[in-house]
Amino acid sequence: MFQWKKEYETGIAIIDEQHQELFKIANEAYNLLKNNLIIDKYDKVLIIFDKLLDYCKYHFSAEEKYLLDIGYKKFLSHKVQHEEFIKDLKNANLKKIDTNQDEYIMEILEFFVRWISGHILATDMDYVKYERTLK
């Protein structure tokens, strides 16, 4: 299970709520992975994967609007990171799920959680520091 940690909090309510939702979706996939009663998880994985991709797009759009609103100087590099991540998700070979469903689900989850937690702790916290200098 992927746990939300206090250190991920930006102090910006809408951003924190959206980050928590991303972890919630990752946990949906993890719960599916651990459910041994479902033998063929392919269709369910695709649904969760689409949900994750859609929510990432939604969150990144909201976050980018926020960054523009505060005049964040590193907006473009931040946006590029978002775009590259979406591209990586879209390029995931979902056909591999048929080969070894549990292994591939875990591989995608680990990639996602590693990226999102690293992004929050480094890149997102940078705009939090920037915003604090404005106050």
TrEMBL record:
GO molecular function: metal ion binding
Top-rank taxon, per record: Bacteria
Residues annotated as domain Hemerythrin-like: 10-128
InterPro entries per the UniProt record, alphabetical: Haemerythrin_Fe_BS (IPR016131), Hemerythrin (IPR050669), Hemerythrin-like (IPR012312), Hemerythrin_metal-bd (IPR012827)
The protein's name in its UniProt record: Hemerythrin family protein
Organism: Clostridium thailandense
